[in-house]
């Protein structure tokens, strides 16, 4: 079992550079930052229920934060968990991903998702009902940009004539595209162009083990091997982590509170203690 | 007069974090990075149409990934976008990226902007070339609204949003200086309207620099504003040239470093550091 850590990088939490060093020093495999570009005061109800936590309004841009972490770590993998691709320009996002992979010498993990906040994505010109179609075309276009000296793409929603764009990613053919979500469209995306999966840990749809087994069957039908699986919100209970491991989770990602260094590092130490049992 | 340096952050050039540390160690006031998000293969000539497009235009790392890395690697040198193609970026996202760099660098960002010159590049981001200055103005005003309000709304011809929250706010108050690049009548108009600084071309622009600065100062006065700081890119560092910039009250000159490996960049940096020392 590998272990990672996720935190909302905010303007009131531990500095991302300090966090990156502390996480790397403790032997974790990966650090994950989520994103929201902004939050409209009138927003879609929070899918997890209750009030939207304040950190959603305060996130530092993940590419800026990871640029800083990449420059100050050497081994730690850096993952977006997840990036709202559909709120971003395709050509610029391809360049940001390749630049981060270049600066980090091949340490980027490209977690993506289609989002849930209708009002937020509409402020970026994206229709809620089209978000999965748009993300699909964006990702297929990015693959062209990452792998061809002269790339072009002609879709319904993304369209450009031949262009040059370097750097190409260090990882070949490109950083793993890791799909977040459990709905039918997320599964379709994973089967078509995903290199990894972030399912929800909760058994709201079906037990995690059953969902992973189903995905592996669907991948096999397409002649594909099982893909690596990251699961967020890892429990501190080793017995539960062992269950995740049996279900097929490859990396447990702990959530840290977006708080000042004392509290965040105390929480990190608790997570580190758990990982030692699996060393 | 302050001295800065700029380099295209190409993937085959010196590492940007190391460049940041080396520039800071030599006492330069600022380090600037240009941007092009990509190059259409239709673009084969430079902006003036006088020479083949240099390879670094196709190879620039993303400006905000680079600025994040350099912010973490340095502690005092100012970090500039020289320039940022605002019309190729979403204003809500760009406001967040600018504020994020200003936050992580503890208030060291200089926000150089421009409306661009490369029609097919601009249009691949969905903005018609003819509208680029109008779009740039609205996006800047929208970003100013986001940076300075807890709840921000904007209703324009091209940018529209209602009541949004976005933190971090920039460390610099009210926001990082907006430094407008360009010599065309519209670029000057924008610098006069909302610029906290101006980047005229040292030799182009259709008139001697002294005349262009005098004309801009005249327009600023008509708008009820005093002169704004002037930054010159591409100074060569010759004695007479720098004395002329001093005479024209230029606030900052920026030397161009070749987008090459450290073996070529560091000697150039040393040469400019010597010129800087001689001018003090």
Shape of chain A: globular
Q: Count of DSSP E strands of chain A? A: 12
Work out the count of structural domains of chain A.
1
Quote the distance from N terminus to C terminus of chain B.
9 Å
Which strand-content bin applies to the residues of chain A?
A: 15-25%
| CA-based gyration radius of chain B | 18 Å
What's the helix and strand layout?
The complex is a heterodimer of chains A (279) and B (280).
Chain A: E1 2-6, H1 16-25, E2 30-33, E3 39-40, H2 62-72, E4 77-80, E5 83-84, H3 90-103, E6 108-113, H4 118-122, H5 131-147, E7 151-154, E8 159-164, E9 177-180, H6 184-193, E10 196-198, H7 208-221, E11 230-232, H8 238-247, E12 251-255, H9 261-276
Parallel strand pairs in A: 1-2, 1-12, 2-4, 4-6, 5-6, 6-9, 9-10, 11-12
Antiparallel strand pairs in A: 7-8
Chain B: E1 2-6, H1 16-25, E2 30-33, E3 39-40, H2 63-73, E4 78-85, H3 91-104, E5 109-114, H4 119-123, H5 132-148, E6 152-155, E7 160-165, E8 178-181, H6 185-194, E9 197-199, H7 209-222, E10 231-235, H8 239-247, E11 252-256, H9 262-278
Parallel strand pairs in B: 1-2, 1-11, 2-4, 4-5, 5-8, 8-9, 10-11
Antiparallel strand pairs in B: 6-7
Question: Mind explaining what this structure looks like?
Answer:
The complex is a heterodimer of chains A (279) and B (280). By secondary structure, chain A is α/β, with parallel strands linked by helices. Chain A has helices at 16-25, 62-72, 90-103, 118-122, 131-147, 184-193, 208-221, 238-247, 261-276; strands at residues 2-6, 30-33, 39-40, 77-80, 83-84, 108-113, 151-154, 159-164, 177-180, 196-198, 230-232, 251-255. In chain A, strand 5, helix 3 (90-103) and strand 6 form a beta-alpha-beta unit. Helix content of chain B is 38%, strand content 19%. An 8-stranded parallel sheet of chain B has the order 9-8-5-4-2-1-11-10. In chain B, helix 2 (63-73) packs parallel to helix 3 (91-104) and helix 3 packs across helix 5 (132-148).
